[in-house]
Structure formats: structure tokens, C-alpha cells
Amino acid sequence: MPRQPQQTSVAPAVPVAQNPLAGLRVEGVDPAPVLADDERGVWLYRGNSLAALDAIAERYPDGNFDMIFADPPYFLSNGGITCHAGRMVKVDKGGWDKSRGPELNHEFNTEWLKRCQRVLRPNGTIWVTGTSHVIFSVGYAMQQLGFKILNDIAWEKPNPPPNLSCRYFTHSTETVLWAAKNEASKHFFNYDLMRQKNGGKQMKTVWRIFSPLRAEKALGKHPTQKPLALLELCLLAASRVGDLILDPFMGAGTTGVASVMNRRRFVGIELDEEHAKLAAARIRSYQVSLDLFVVSDAKRGETDMRIQSNSLREWLLDNKYNDVAELIDEVAAEWAADGKKTRRNWWDILAGDNKGMPRIVDGRKFPVLRAARIRKGLSATKSCLCRNPHEVVPPAVEQQRWMKRAR
Ligand SMILES: C[S@@+](CC[C@H](N)C(=O)[O-])C[C@H]1O[C@@H](n2cnc3c(N)ncnc32)[C@H](O)[C@@H]1O
Question: Fewer CB within 10 A of the terminal residue: the chain, N end or C end?
């Protein structure tokens, strides 16, 4: 079923926030944050999240976070093999990911979940990702601790690495558990937005999302980085603008990036110094690019900031694509399945019609890109989408085959 493009959104300002670890001395946690942005409400710490959460729970006995996203160690770096970039490699994500046996792994899961439950606000919710190596223990610990499990999402990866042994199905899903603090919680679910994002139908518990794009790893690599699209969906489903989000296993800071992009406040804790620095660099860089899309509403004399409505990023977000190429791939794959030719000049489609209106291909409305219009020598219309207001478009490089055609 084709996904129909949605309207872009305008985000209100983020309220003033407080750093929950400010002034606290916690053993195992560096006293100085790796990144502290009081204005936006972003605080990253290097250290052990269990110790940090104990300190936060003591300071806020009634809970402090509206939503938690936890991507804990999966305990799968145990000498197995996998396929990476076409090569056979050992599964070794790092010492933190080694299994210590089912009992100790379960004890660890129970300990960090217990702390997360304490620091959640009464109506707050938690998301936890995992494969079979960890997710059954997480689910059992949640039941033991009295969380209320709301959904188990199957995150389907359309491009999984092949199974080299040919003795199993290709692993292509992870589970994402969504749970409320306890049975009494009145959790928040952005039902309307989720339905809107799903073309007007109730969203199901199977989410098809690509692994992180290359651009998401531009500043450095983390072995188990999650896609930004996954985090944005969780955040938009279960939190509001200005909410305070926690990630106790921050890694490369994907939850922080999604929070900043969607005007939530964020606290991240990460054991490894290099990962924590990478998270800080990513969040800073997204803040810079976000600023390109943000304009102050000077006409109304207001100081709040609004997201520029004709940004390509907003369109991608609203339409659940990581990239416009995914939309093209979707249509081309259907044509290929029907035995139709798939070659086509997509720039023509993306340039829109002469008036700059979107073109519709097999029931799907394609966005009009400013880059495509400029590339085709057409004037940029008001509603065409751009990566940033100062987007520079490289000229089309002449191809040999065009010359042949001209002869
Ligand atoms: C699965 S990765 C998270 C990846 C992250 N979601 C992302 O998108 O980049 C888990 C991370 O937890 C960190 N970690 C493990 N034990 C920790 C602990 N006790 N406290 C804080 N961080 C921890 C590891 O160093 C690792 O970077």
C-alpha cells in the first residue's frame, strides 16, 4: 500500500530544563559532563549508568524522566561469525557485550531496569531493544518488577547481512519492548500522529526500518548504532515536545540526536569515553544542521523558534523514509516484480511538473526537490523542498551516452 505524503509540522519552543546530575558527585561517573547545554536541555555523562541512576533516584524520589530508551548490551559477542561489508568477521562489539551466563546477565538486566523504573515519572514509559540473546531476560525482569508491557514491536531490517552458515534463516528482526512504569500508569500514546504517519490506518507492531544510513556514521562508527528513524518513531509515539528523555546506554548518542531534532530534552550516560565523545560530536553537529532549518518568527515579534516547513528532512520524517531513494526503490522493486522496466530518469519526477507541482507515480506522490528543479534549469518554486535554505546544487555532469544520443 503506497504511503501518502504528509503535511510538515511546526514545533514549539522547548521549556527551560534542569540538569538532574548537576552538582552531584557520583562514583564511577565523571563529574564534568561530556556535553552540557542548559538552554536546549542536553546533558551527556561518561560513566556507569547504574551509579548515575541511583543518584538521580535519590534526588527525584517521584521520578524524573518522561521516557527512557535503553539499548543495553545484547551479550552476543561470544565468538560467533557474521558477514560485514561482504566479509566474514567475528562478532565482537566490545568487552561490554560479552555474555557472563544467563543468571548473571539476568541479574544485570534486573538491576538496570529496577533503576530505570525508579527514575521514570508515574506515567512515563520505557523502550528496550534486543535480540533473542537478551530480550527474554528483559521481558521477564520487567514482569518481575511490575512494569506494564504495552507492546512488543518487531523491527524488521530490509537489508540484513546474509547468514553465512546457511543453517538458519537470515536474522532480520529485533524486538523493541515498550512498557509503562507500572499497572497504574496512564501512559501517553500519540495515536493520531502514528495513524497519520501510517497513511490514516492504525500503525501495526511491525516496523520496517533500514539500518543506520552511511551519513549517520559520518562522524565515527559505533558497533551497534541504532537508526535515527527508529528512535524518532519511538520518541514521537511516546513523548511530547519538551519532555525529558533518558538513555542509560547512550552509545553513539542516537537517542540524543533524535531528542534534539524533535525538541525533547535529553540525558545520556555512556561507559566508554570514545563513544561518549562521538555522541557529543553527533549531537553538536545535528544542532548545527538543525539551526539551518530553524528560523525565528520575526514577523510576529516572537522569540520562539519554528522549524522551516519546506525542509526535506521534515518531509522524510513525516513520511517515514530515511532517504528519497527509498521511495524510488520501493516503486522500482514493484515494477521489477511485475516484470516492468525499472530504468527511469528520477530527476524528472523529483523536479515536479512545469508549475512545480508534485508528480504522482503509481499512486505515490513524489516530493519536489529544489535541487532537481535547479538541475533541470527550472525555477525553484516556493513549495519545493531543500536540505537547507542555502543549498548549493552541483551542475549535472554530462554523460557520454547523452552525446551519442545527440549525434
Ligand atoms: C548497544 S550499545 C548502544 C548504542 C546506541 N543505542 C546507539 O545508537 O549508538 C550499548 C552501549 O552501552 C554502553 N554500556 C555498557 N554498560 C554500560 C553501563 N553500565 N553504563 C553506561 N553505559 C554502558 C556500551 O559502552 C555501549 O556503547
Answer: C
Q: Residue 29 region, left (φ>0) first, then alpha (ψ -120 to 50), else beta?
A: beta
User: What rounded mean pLDDT belongs to the chain?
Assistant: 84
The answer to whether 367 and 317 have CB atoms below 8 angstroms apart is no
Count other C-beta atoms under 10 Å from residue 121's C-beta: 17
CA angle 350, 354, 360 (to 5 degrees): 45
Residue 86, helix vs strand vs coil: coil
Q: How far apart are the first and last CA of the chain?
A: 43
Cα dist from 200 to 6, 91, 196, 363, whole Å:
10, 41, 5, 15
Cα 99 from chain centre? 27
Q: Answer yes or no: is pLDDT of 291 > 60.
A: no
Class of domain 35-299: alpha beta
Q: Does 13 have pLDDT greater than 50? A: no
CA dist 382 → 40, 319, 323 (Å): 30, 20, 22
CA–CA separation, 271 vs 94, rounded Å?
12
**pLDDT surpassing 70 at residue 397:** no
Beta strands in 157-200 (DSSP E): 173-180
CA 269 / ligand 1 centre spacing (Å): 8
Residue 231 has pLDDT above 80, yes or no: yes
Asked whether the whole model's pTM tops 0.90, one would answer no
Secondary structure of 264-320 in the HEC alphabet? CEEEEEECCHHHHHHHHHHHHHHHHHHHHHEEECHHHCCCCEEECCCEHHHHHHHCC
Ligand 1 contacts (CB < 6 A) are: 48-50, 71, 73, 96, 222, 224-226, 249, 251-252, 254, 269-272, 275
Mutate to test the pocket of ligand 1, among 126, 155, 231, 250 (most ligand atoms within 8 A of CB): 250
pLDDT in tens, 334-370: 888 888 887 888 989 999 998 888 899 988 889 988 8
C-alpha 267/C-alpha 163 separation (Å) is: 37
Q: Residue ranges per domain, the chain?
A: 35-299, 341-406
CA of 53 to the centre of ligand 1 (A): 14
